[in-house]
Design a protein that fits this description.
six-stranded mixed beta barrel; Barwin-like endoglucanases
Length: 133
């Protein structure tokens, strides 16, 4: 029997799963102020469905905007975030004006009533960042 046909898939599997090719992430936690926003014209600087990153917002999906100080801490575009008191994983899709500090804005589509009911709360968020050695 020719064992080359058995060994090659094992070598490829090992090579593809080497530690250097598998991204390493860690979760960090932070206490922030959380408000809510909608994709309506009077709440934005331009097109209410386009973010500061140029992404399109789609009502019903879980997005947040972050203050610039949080962006510098690792809340980059498409970072995974969980929010205390809310189900699911949110994606960082927008940035806020420089005047805001230690703040996230939860996207609530066009549901202005839900955003007003949320109000302003202090919450703990958990965010995924690349592991630093």
């Amino acid at each position: 029997m020719d064992f080359r046909y058995l060994i090659l898939p094992l070598v490829l599997a090992f090579y593809c799963c080497e530690e250097k090719t598998v991204p390493k992430y860690e979760w960090k936690s932070l206490r922030v102020t959380a408000t809510a926003y909608n994709s309506v014209e009077y709440q934005t600087d331009g097109d209410p469905h386009i973010t500061a990153f140029g992404d399109s917002l789609k009502p019903g999906l879980k997005y947040i905007a972050v203050s610039n100080d949080l962006y510098r801490l690792g809340f980059k575009q498409d970072t995974y975030v969980t929010i205390e008191g809310l189900k699911g994983i949110y994606l960082v899709k927008d940035r806020m004006h420089e005047r805001w500090k230690n703040k996230i804005d939860i996207y609530m589509g066009t549901d202005i009533k839900a955003a007003k009911q949320w109000g302003r709360k202090k919450v703990t968020v958990h965010f995924r960042v690349p592991f630093e050695k």
